[in-house]
Amino acid sequence: MSPRKGSARASAATALAAAAWWLAYTHLTEFSDGVVRLLGVDPASHLGSAVGFFVFESPKVLLLLAGIVFVMGVIHTFVSPERTRALLSGRGLGVGNVMAAGLGVVTPFCSCSAVPLFIGFLQAGVPLGVTFSFLISAPMVNEVALTLLFGMLGWKVAALYLALGLTVAVGAGMTIGRLGMEEHLEDWVRAIQDSRPAESASEAPLTWADRISAGLAHDREIVGKVWPYILLGVALGAGIHGFVPQEFIAGIMGRNAWWSVPAAVLLGVPMYSNAAGIIPVVQALLAKGAALGTVLAFMMSVIALSAPEIVILRKVLKPRLIAVFVGVVAAGIMLVGFVFNAVL
């Protein structure tokens, strides 16, 4: 089959899949109501409310995630990792931090899986503060997080989270960069900074069939990894939505208690989850009266400052640099929480 015919068939199949996606997405309410009726559960009861939440949100989130990740997978075929590293390695603080944080938006990694790219950037000669902007942004502000926030809480919250996350990533990276703590990298990391990865040979241009295949592979890789977290997170959110009293949540995570934001950050750090697992919980907390700033601080700390990430970073960073990283990022997250609790 000629490349042109292959691309035409792939495009037609993609158009049909998009139509089926839209049909399914626009009939989620009917599907959810039908399942609740089929189960014979009173929709007004605690159990009915929890079941309805789970049955509606699970396919909604999975459909949104599959669609956006596919599109991003196609977009990724136009940008090579070598070119990205070369671009960042030629930038200093400020512009480099903004570019690295922006790169994190289109890399759907959890905090642990972002660490190898962090090391690769250091090896390519990217400044330390710039690499930290990527390390913070990649797990906290990526296509998965923004897609789920848009689907579950609306575009305003998603846009707000994007602005806040990029601000924390850029600000923390610039702060760490200005402290000049390169000597607190582990010796083996400093040694590999003297070597530079060889430029890869130029590849043949990709056809649209190749790009669509790459998008599907991106879907299989990302959605295939996170769907259990999505179901677990939606189940936990459904439990909160249906059974936890509103007064209880508002009392702990409301805006009136000054200690709620630091407590939310401290609670979030030992937890390990990605955006797929924690955003349904965030939705349920907000619905129960928790303050937006407190909930966003909790979410950011869970995603960007997980305990497993810190353990992995210990192989790359010396303890003092890890402490500075955690302290600077936590301070930025708490500032975000306090500001938005004060003004909203």
Number of helices: 17
Q: In angstroms, what is the radius of gyration?
A: 22 Å
Give the N-terminus to C-terminus distance in angstroms.
59 Å
Shape: flat
> What would you call the structural class?
mainly alpha
User: What's the total count of β strands?
Assistant: 0
What is the N-to-C succession of helices and strands? HHHHHHHHHHHHHHHHH
Average pLDDT works out at: 77
**Share in β-strands:** under 5%
Helix content: over 70%
Sheet having the most strands? none
Low-confidence stretches: 196-201
Instruction: Write down the oligomeric state.
Output: single chain
Topology readout:
Layout: H1 3-25, H2 28-39, H3 46-76, H4 81-89, H5 95-105, H6 114-123, H7 128-140, H8 143-153, H9 155-178, H10 187-192, H11 208-243, H12 246-253, H13 260-268, H14 275-287, H15 292-304, H16 307-313, H17 319-343
Helix pairs in contact: 1-3, 1-11, 2-3, 3-8, 3-11, 5-7, 5-9, 6-7, 7-9, 8-9, 8-14, 9-17, 11-14, 13-15, 14-15, 15-17
